[in-house]
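Action item from last meeting closed. Structure (212 res):
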């Protein structure tokens, strides 16, 4: 399904279903972000609807540009050029567009609410982290959204890698200062494991040249 996102007041096609704040009323307000270097991928930490995620974030005084629900539907909550409050560490808000993907993540005390997921264990920040995998529809939509945003901002569709593997920790400042592309919240904050390595690896693979 072909949808459209809003970037700098202009509509950009994305190969995923999209509903904007114009349709839903789910709108975060902020000032203009003048320098976009990164697409920052997160998980929400709970299996709520997109509407409830919006309400919860507003109550916590945090905000994000996009929410991807369990079925892969994308909800845009602000123009992608808006500076919002989704990743305050290491310039995440200053330079990044934020995507929240609905998933209780690694906190299995949070109810699954009929969305129980296969579990995956990866080493992140040097320790094992077990979390619920994203559903295939979410993966497809998030890859499509990262792809569209990278095209809109002229960024490479890639994730940070070291020795051929996606970075599983915070990026060194010397790397982060020049890096452009996609990354995870975990690449900005040592206290965050989201969105896990598997999704970032798939985003990165989507940007690699096709070998024929």
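Sequence:
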């Amino acid at each position: 399904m072909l949808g459209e996102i809003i970037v700098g007041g202009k509509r950009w096609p994305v190969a995923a279903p999209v509903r904007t704040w114009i349709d839903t009323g789910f709108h975060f307000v902020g000032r203009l972000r003048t320098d976009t270097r990164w697409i920052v991928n997160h998980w929400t930490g709970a299996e709520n609807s997109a509407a409830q995620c919006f309400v919860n974030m507003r109550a916590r005084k945090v905000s994000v540009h996009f929410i991807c629900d369990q079925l892969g539907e994308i909800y845009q909550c602000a123009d992608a050029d808006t500076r919002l409050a989704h990743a305050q560490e290491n310039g995440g808000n200053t330079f990044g567009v934020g995507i929240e993907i609905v998933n209780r993540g690694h906190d299995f005390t949070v109810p699954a609410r009929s969305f129980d997921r296969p579990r995956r264990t990866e080493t992140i920040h040097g320790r094992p982290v077990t979390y619920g995998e994203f559903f295939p529809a979410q993966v497809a939509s998030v890859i499509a959204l990262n792809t569209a945003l990278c095209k809109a901002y002229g960024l490479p569709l890639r994730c940070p890698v070291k020795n051929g593997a996606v970075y599983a920790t915070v990026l060194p400042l010397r790397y982060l200062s020049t890096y452009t592309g996609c990354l995870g919240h975990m690449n900005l904050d040592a206290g965050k494991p989201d969105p896990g390595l598997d999704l970032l690896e798939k985003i990165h693979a989507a940007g690699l040249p096709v070998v024929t």
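Note appended to the action item: The mean pLDDT is 96.
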